[in-house]
Each structure stands twice: as C-alpha cells, then as structure tokens.
C-alpha cells in the first residue's frame, strides 16, 4: 500500500486533482486519499497516546476516523486550499494532534480515573473495528454527510460552496458577490463549523 510519504516522492500523485474529485463527491478519491495518509495519521496518534493510562480511554482508530471525517467535510465544502502532499500531510497531522488532545481533555473533564477504565480497544470485538477494509463505506458515508451539510447552508453559503468546488478563489468570489472576500470567507467557515458540529460529534 502506498503511504503519504511514498506519495510525496511519486510525481504521478496529483493532490490537487484528488481534492477536486472529493469536492465533486467522488468516494473513490476520498478512499484513495485515506489510504495514502492513514498510516501517518495513526502513527501520530499513537505517539500522542504514549501513556498506557490515556490509551485505556482514548481509541486511536476512533480518532483517526474523526480526523478524516472532519477533513473530508471541510474540504468538500471548500474550506481548504491544498495543492502539495506535504502541505496536506501537515494539515492532517495537526488535526490529529488537536483531536487527540481534545479526546483526552474530554475524559479529564468527566473526572474519570483513567487508571480504572477498561481499554476501549479490548472492549470492542475485532469484527466491529472500522479498519481499512471499511474505507469505501466510510467514504460514501462522508459524502452523505457533506450533502446534508450543504442542505443546511443558506442560499448564499451554498453558492459559495459551489463556487469553491469549481475552483474559484476568495477574491473572485468576493467580486462576483459584491462583498469583501475576507468577510465572506470567515462567514462561510463559521457556518461550516456550526453545521458540522451539529451533524456529527467527529467534526
């Protein structure tokens, strides 16, 4: 299986094209991107979960799934501009770090004693784990989530999302809509964040 680091050394991998296909709602592109980057994301999460006490309450596979759902929804809605494999890898690793920290802080906020909680990995049956073989189904599910997210956008927000999927930059969108590009970008991103959090706890 080709990983992200192998992809970065392979000039035939066109990240910008994969992003374009994801924005068009093509699950195969999401599956391909997931397979490239999943090993690096999992490695980063495992590094952050060095403490055995933390690993008892924070599941690395769940966090990895959270990272990819969050990324696919945002990129599908036109929130990110990414053209290089290294840039994408760094973004995904940053999301992974934030998700891992958030998951552990949530456990602490619940005042749970991490030394006494049964390991989540041990508590789940192997057949229930969302491993790489389930990536196509997960990619299709993310497409459904993106469609629902877009249904909840306002008329102007949906127009912005459509223009972003078509490759328009923020200055071009601002000119078309007669507003400040920065104001449109911030308003659009706030809408995506709000709706995304309502749709899924993974956002």
TrEMBL record:
What keywords are assigned to this protein?
Answer: Coiled coil, DNA-binding, Sigma factor, Transcription, Transcription regulation
Entry annotated with the keyword rRNA-binding: no
Organism superkingdom: Bacteria
What InterPro entries does this protein's entry cite? HTH_Sigma70_ECF-like, RNA_pol_sigma-70-like, RNA_pol_sigma-70_dom, RNA_pol_sigma_r2, RNA_pol_sigma_r3/r4-like, WH-like_DNA-bd_sf
SUPFAM superfamilies per the UniProt record, alphabetical: Sigma2 domain of RNA polymerase sigma factors, Sigma3 and sigma4 domains of RNA polymerase sigma factors
Task: Name a GO molecular-function annotation.
Answer: DNA binding
A GO biological-process term: DNA-templated transcription initiation
Q: What's a Pfam family this protein contains? A: Sigma70_ECF
Coiled-coil annotated spans: 139-166
**Chain ranges of the RNA polymerase sigma-70 ECF-like HTH domain:** 14-198
**Family, similarity comment:** Belongs to the sigma-70 factor family. ECF subfamily.
> NCBIfam families given for it?
sigma70-ECF (TIGR02937)
- Name of the protein this chain belongs to: RNA polymerase sigma-70 ECF-like HTH domain-containing protein
User: Can you name the source organism?
Assistant: Blastopirellula marina
